[in-house]
Amino acid sequence: MAVRQSSNRPLPTVPESELNATVPALAAALAVGLVVGLERGWRNRELPEGGRVAGLRTFALIGLLGGALAVPGLPDLWAGVGLAGVALLFAVSWQPSASAAGSLSITTAIAALATFALGALAARGHAVVALAAAVVVALLLDLKEELHGWLRLMQPEELNAVLQLGVLSAVILPLLPDEGYGPYNAINPFKLWLAVILVAALSLLGRVASRLRGEQQGLLWVGLLGGLASSTAASLSLSRVARTEPRLGLPASAAIVAASGVMFLRMAVVISALEPALAPRLGGYLVVLGITTFGAAALLWRRRDRGDDATVPAQARLFDLGTAVGFGVALGVIAVLVRAGKEGLGDAGIFAVAFLSGLADVDAIVISAVQMHAQEELGAAATATAILLAALANMVVKGGMAWTIAGRGVGRRVAAAFGAVACVGVAAAALASLIAR
């Protein structure tokens, strides 16, 4: 009987190039599981051994499994079957644990599916994206109490505002053309709507920050946070408080001045975002004015009666789509007027429009002037002059409101503070001019 001789053929080996690519991919998939598992394991660390559905080791294995089944060269079906298997395992284990704990939460199961998918993504050559997403998943899981607390604090109109902001930015904005229309090609729908979103987001940010800080932080917070949305509206509200509660005249005066300080910084941010070339000089100049204004507000604040507990007045109504569209229309009209003034009267026409626009709001003229500079229709000096004229007009209006609504005492303090800021502004401009020579 012949005996079969053993073959001398070498065992099959994995090409070094494939090995060099596969090992880091699997390591990244394992890291994805460890990141998510770290949070899940820590949260359930007090449970007895075997009392938790999945912890650090389970999530690490899920991430590694996702990576192993998605290694390039394997059929895509394998990863799909693996994902379905993980879902089935959690479905089977979830029912008894949920019944025992009286909980309907499936967060851990969803996190496991996300971990498997991210492990597969890492194996397909997107390790950095997968790891970043795993960190986000772990962070969302860790912030459970904070997120639920914010939801409990959120009022219906605030949820409405968040959803409306989503409509403005994610639904309407992508549909708008990014080119000029109308008289002088002055109306750019995309940029006008982008400005609407910017102002609306600042308004929402001010409201949310105020809610998180609480309603008993004093009038100063109304000025600081209200200035993010509209320093004019904040000044009007504060002036009314000072009229009804004369003992709050000093803190109200400080808050009105502080709102203008926020206005200067907000203008600097908008200019830097829309036209970075103007940021070093004009943006820096506005920052100096903002710091000076805050200094004046601080001096007034220190003189207040510290025994008074200034309560925050009712917050202004949050923006809605009608308000946002109205701002966009006003911005378009101002853009046309600015270009018409430029055509008819040169820079002098723009300056007149800037001053008149600043009587109501500075955002529209700032955006229009900056966009004209970006299109090389307005020089840097003329742009700066128009913006500063708008700011000056706006301060005049707020000082007038303080005087006529809150009374002489508040009006004098606000006027003195604004006068000091104007003097510093003139001195800074003169110094910059001398240095430029």
From TrEMBL:
Domain MgtC/SapB/SrpB/YhiD N-terminal: 26-149
Span of domain DUF4010: 197-405
Transmembrane region(s): 54-71, 77-94, 101-121, 189-206, 218-238, 250-270, 282-301, 321-338, 350-372, 378-397, 417-436
Keywords recorded for this protein, A-Z: Membrane, Transmembrane, Transmembrane helix
Pfam families xrefs: DUF4010 (PF13194), MgtC (PF02308)
Record-linked InterPro entries: DUF4010 (IPR025105), MgtC_SapB_SrpB_YhiD_N (IPR049177)
Protein name as annotated: MgtC/SapB family protein
Organism: Ramlibacter lithotrophicus
